[in-house]
Structures are given as C-alpha cells and as structure tokens.
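Inverse folding, one chain.
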C-alpha cells in the first residue's frame, strides 16, 4: 500500500493495443487529479495488490453469453479481456475498493453483479441518435439524490456516446443515477459504497469540461482515504 504522503495508485484496465488512446487520456486525467496511474491489460496477468482504486475502461462488446442464457452463438470480441476484468472485479468488489467503470466498464461491472444489458439500443431510441460521437451532443439527466449529482453538481449536462449497448437489469446493490432523453440508463452507482460508479459515456475524452474531470478527482479522493 502507499504511504500517507504519496499519491493514490489507480489501476486502469484496457486492451492489448499498440496505441491505447483511451489509456493516455485517462492517465492524464488521473495525474491532473493527483494520482499515479498504472495500465493493466490481459497480457499483464493478475491485478497487483498495492492499488488504491481501479478504472475499468471502455472497449469491445461484452460476450452476450455472460448475461443472456439464450444468447446467439457468436464468439465474444475479446474473451481474454472479459476473463481478465471479470476476475479483477470479482476479487476487488468484496473489499469496497473505489471503482469507476467507463462505458464497457460500467456494463461489465453491472454484469458481474448479476445484471444484464440491452444488446442493441437502436429500437429504444426515439428522441436521440444511436450514432457514435466523441463530442458531447447527448443530454444526461441526473437524479439529485445520488453521488453522481454530488460529483457533477448539475441535474442536466451534455455527454458523448461511443457504444450501442447499455445497462438493462441492474446488478446487485446498484441503482440508476442518470438517464438520457430516451430514458436509457447512462449511469449506475452503489449508494452503500464510498465510490462504486459506472458511466456509459467517456469522460476522459471531455477534459475541457470541469464536471467531467471531477469524476476522476472524486475517484482519487475516495482512493486516498
């Protein structure tokens, strides 16, 4: 574990890729928040025991067979990463370690806790587009009695969207804390934990927005306790 005068250590899971763009943005956000970031991928094996918090980052779809008993018989897009991150969450969840799930990470957190996903949001969208976009063109409505509201400080803000799936049935202990204009879940959290939060959007790609940076700052504050 870190000493009392050192920075919290936040692990960031991701893909085995040569140019991990998301990792670079998340590392920058964590450094700005005063944390040391370490990058973990399936190639690294087990999650080290000296971390103070973890971010499960975005990426490929999760294997539908993990949460749908009658899922189509298709191979998961990244089975190694599924196994790696599921193992990490199963080990860390009982400890209450601060966790932030981003997009795929929020979905996987929900699935590991026994929830399920909408495999395709297209039929659910009536007021918003399912087109992927880095810029914050979608509207987030935040429930006021949530940790997410405490972090963002607003009931309504703009977010981006890079995925076609989202949380359906909630996992154990989780509640919805934010929705979009189609009432699709955009954020989940566990109110009984100091910091266990999943967001459907990518705050790392919105560093120009102070409220998005606060997600990383709040994670680091919880990890420093």
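Residues assigned per position:
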């Amino acid at each position: 574990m870190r000493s009392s005068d050192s920075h919290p250590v936040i692990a960031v899971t991701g893909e085995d890729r040569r140019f991990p763009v998301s990792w670079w943005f998340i590392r920058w956000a964590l450094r700005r928040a005063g944390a040391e970031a370490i990058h973990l991928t399936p190639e690294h094996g087990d999650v080290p025991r000296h971390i103070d918090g973890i971010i499960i980052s975005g990426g490929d779809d999760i294997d539908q067979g993990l949460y749908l008993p009658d899922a189509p018989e298709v191979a998961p897009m990244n089975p190694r990463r599924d196994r790696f991150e599921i193992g990490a969450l199963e080990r860390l969840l009982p400890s209450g370690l601060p966790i932030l799930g981003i997009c795929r990470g929020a979905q996987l957190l929900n699935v590991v806790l026994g929830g399920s996903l909408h495999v395709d949001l297209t039929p659910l969208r009536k007021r918003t587009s399912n087109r992927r976009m880095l810029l914050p063109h979608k509207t987030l409505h935040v429930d006021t009695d949530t940790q997410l509201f405490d972090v963002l400080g607003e009931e309504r803000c703009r977010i981006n969207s890079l995925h076609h799936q989202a949380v359906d049935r909630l996992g154990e202990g989780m509640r919805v804390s934010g929705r979009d204009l189609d009432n699709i879940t955009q954020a989940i959290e566990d109110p009984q934990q100091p910091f266990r939060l999943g967001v459907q959007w990518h705050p790392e790609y919105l560093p120009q927005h102070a409220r998005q940076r606060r997600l990383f700052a709040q994670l680091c504050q919880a990890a420093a306790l």
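The longest helix spans residues 210-224. The chain has five helices and eleven strands.
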